[in-house]
Specification:
Layout (H helix, E strand, L loop, with lengths): L9 H9 L12 E6 L3 H4 L6 H4 L9 H20 L3 E6 L9 H6 L24 E5 L10 H8 L3 E7 L1 H14 L3 E5 L3 E2 L3 H14 L2 E3 L1 H8 L13
Parallel strand pairs: 1-2, 1-4, 2-3, 4-5, 4-6, 5-7
């Protein structure tokens, strides 16, 4: 079962695959992990159903985020073990005087997040040597030095996690694809407040821009690159 089964019709899936979309990508030589916007403001300080969670932070996805974060932690542990790059594109605290624009117009509540909301959960918190990428827009690439960091780190394959699937994850995956990075999206390590948007955007990314699989499947794809694995030609 794929996360979009039952939401994307069999006819639409058949037409997409018949046209040649959805083929698997090769994996490169140097993976990097992106943990996008996994902050208390998107998961809450404890796991709760979303309608409860938004009472604390209006941008919270509640327990959906906590469930995904457990899988992000598995990926993070593997990246730590192999000393592969880990990068944290994230939203920094808003300056109401200068950070308004269309975002404040569209979602006013996003301008009033308490300071705690911008902290990283301890389970996946950055450590020395990780790259922090403050951003102001959905894509982690837009108006940030992310591409420059990835080039400097020699990364050619991105494992994209975090939230939201339909927003910052999708925007970042599209730009990663445009920059010719290989993109892998673990569908159980990304999250969204809307289940339908989550599923539809995963289907679209899998068809056109990325490989979408479970965390376990992506860890298996990474295994040949891991420390102690036999050296083989990849890519």
């Amino acid at each position: 079962m794929k996360p979009w089964d039952g939401i994307i019709s069999e006819e639409d899936q058949k037409a997409t695959y018949a046209a040649g979309f959805g083929r698997p990508s090769s994996i490169g030589r140097r993976p990097a992990l992106l943990i996008i916007d996994v902050q208390y403001r998107t998961i809450g300080t404890s796991p709760k159903p979303i309608l409860e969670a938004i009472k604390e932070f209006p941008t919270s996805c509640g327990e959906l985020g906590w469930n995904a974060m457990r899988n992000i932690a598995l990926l993070l542990a593997e990246f730590r073990r192999n000393e592969w790059p880990v990068l944290y594109p994230h939203v920094a605290p808003k300056n109401k005087a200068t950070d308004g624009g269309r975002l404040a117009e569209k979602v006013p509540a996003i301008m009033d997040i308490a300071a705690k909301g911008y902290e990283f959960p301890t389970e996946i918190a950055p450590r020395e040597g990780d790259v922090l990428i403050p951003k102001k827009h959905p894509s982690a690439f837009f108006a940030t030095p992310l591409a420059s960091h990835l080039i400097d780190l020699g990364a050619d394959t991105l494992v994209v996690t975090g939230c939201t699937t339909s927003g910052c994850v999708r925007g970042s995956v599209l730009d990663a694809f445009a920059y010719n990075f290989r993109a892998f999206v673990p569908h159980d390590a990304v999250y969204d407040r809307c289940a339908t948007s989550h599923a539809v955007n995963l289907f679209d990314m899998a068809a056109k821009y990325a490989d979408v699989a479970t965390t376990a499947e992506i860890l298996e794809r990474l295994r040949p690159l891991s420390k102690g694995s036999p050296v083989r030609k990849v890519g």
